[in-house]
Specification:
By secondary structure, this protein is of the alpha+beta class. It has 8 helices and 8 strands; from the N terminus they run αβααββαββαβαββαα. Strands 1, 2, 3, 4, 5, 6, 7 and 8 form an 8-stranded mixed β-sheet that branches. Helix 4 crosses helix 6. The longest helix is centred in the N-terminal third of the chain and has 22 residues. The protein is globular.
Length: 228
């Protein structure tokens, strides 16, 4: 999970210097009720569920040209406008988020026991500046640092089941990058470590990806990925 130029530098034994990024959009998701699911399922089945879910998310990240940063347990982190310049970075993350919820809701918790239902996730994102760097020499990790990361994580933790929650900064960017996207004010909420913030919900229907759904573009793309 390294950008190409970082991977090349590490392969050549070069020291990787920190990089500043003035404006990125960071996505976080996690699974609703993951603790309860973990208490009911064998660890092997938990790993299989996460593998199925995140294989689908990875395929969507390719489709939307979103850079996957990492997964930590049931949390998935991705970013736009980091490794390549993307003037529509907020729009891309939003459309990725909409499809991530769709895919999660089609992913069985336990394929051998359909009565356990499908995966539900919470999603949040925020836009701002970050510093990227490679941390460690043994199993090095490509990490993002800055308050933008913390705020994006708070947008996710304050989200709700199968909903997309974003900051005011991201909402304003999204309105410019995709005027037809429906955005609804949530009002001011108390965010841990941030105080009161004005935040917004993204409507998950009638989005810019809806036309792709009607034409089966993403559906066919996902089928081709699962066959590999």
């Amino acid at each position: 999970m390294f950008p190409k130029h970082i991977a090349n530098a590490l392969r050549n034994g070069q020291k990787v210097e920190p990089e500043n990024h003035d404006l990125v959009t960071i996505f976080f998701s996690d699974i609703v009720g993951f603790t309860d699911i973990s208490a009911k399922l064998d660890p092997l089945k938990i790993s299989e569920m996460l593998d199925r879910l995140y294989n689908s998310f990875d395929a969507l990240s390719d489709y939307h040209d979103v850079f996957k940063v990492e997964t930590i347990g049931d949390a998935y982190m991705a970013v736009t406008n980091l490794t390549t310049a993307q003037s529509d970075h907020c729009k891309r993350i939003t459309e990725f988020a909409i499809d991530a919820i769709r895919v999660a809701n089609q992913t069985l918790v336990d394929e051998e026991n359909p009565s356990m239902g499908f995966v539900n996730i919470r999603v949040g994102f925020h836009s701002g500046s970050v510093v990227s760097n490679v941390v460690g020499t043994r199993n090095p990790r490509y990490c993002l640092f800055g308050d933008t990361v913390n705020t994006a994580s708070r947008m996710e933790s304050n989200s709700q089941k199968n909903r997309i929650h974003c900051s005011e900064i991201s909402a304003k960017l999204l309105k410019k990058q995709c005027p037809r996207m429906r955005i609804y004010p949530r009002g001011r909420i108390d965010v841990k470590g941030k105080g009161e913030m004005e935040t917004f919900w993204i409507h998950t229907e009638g989005s810019a990806t809806a036309k792709d759904k009607k034409n089966g573009t993403i559906r066919n793309f996902m089928k081709s990925v699962r066959k590999k």
